[in-house]
Amino acid sequence: MLRKRKKEVVNTVFHLLVHSIAHAVQINYIRVPPAVRNNSGHSAILDCNYSLRPDDTELVVKWYLNDAVVYQWIPPQKPQALGLMKDKLNLTYQATDDPKTAYRAMKIINPTTDLAGEYKCFVSTFADEDFSMKNMIVFVPESTLILLHGGYNQQRINFTCFASEVYPEPKIMIYKDRKDDTLSKNPLQAIEWSTSRLRNGRYSVTVVSSAFLNKLNPGSLIHCELRIPGTGYVKRKSMLYYPPSKALTITSGTGLHKMPQ
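Structure for Ig-like domain-containing protein, as requested:
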């Protein structure tokens, strides 16, 4: 009889715990743009979708940027922009019509590089709390992208690609079109790479690659491709190569900007 009673108590406690956990404050998901362009004039919305128990009280919603509080909403008060977000949010933006979730999201009016980093949504009530984090990159496209050739000798020629005022640090590859197989890119051997950090925090990068003259046909198309990791941003500069004796070069630039969906 005593053993049966103990079993009933254990089962009751277990079901209470399961019921409590199942109905606790829970962040279902957060939506943070993985990458946005610096000072583009477009807003960015960071949303925090959460669930509450019907009897939850003392709701507090906070957003952190790199561990510093930048947004706070304590219903029925109006939301507040704090720290780096002061004067940078649209505080009238409502994610839903529900008074318990209306101001759960932040709408950044015009993101700039100082607002890049790790964002954390923190939701708490009198009885429980939960949080979730994601990163956002704010990138700056290059102000200059130049592709040149020079440094001839009897066997090789060098191609130099220079990019300036980029953030964060980009990846650069020099390659020629490859038409003799299914590969679309044939990277040239990089012999020099230099990166400098400017006072404004942006980067200037120079890459020098080398190619054998006997493997370059007149009219070969040479490309310099710049990518900003994690953003989908790509920019290319292209050149038609001719031997020094013919000294005819044509330079062209094309830009691609593919933002994550």
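The mean pLDDT is 85.
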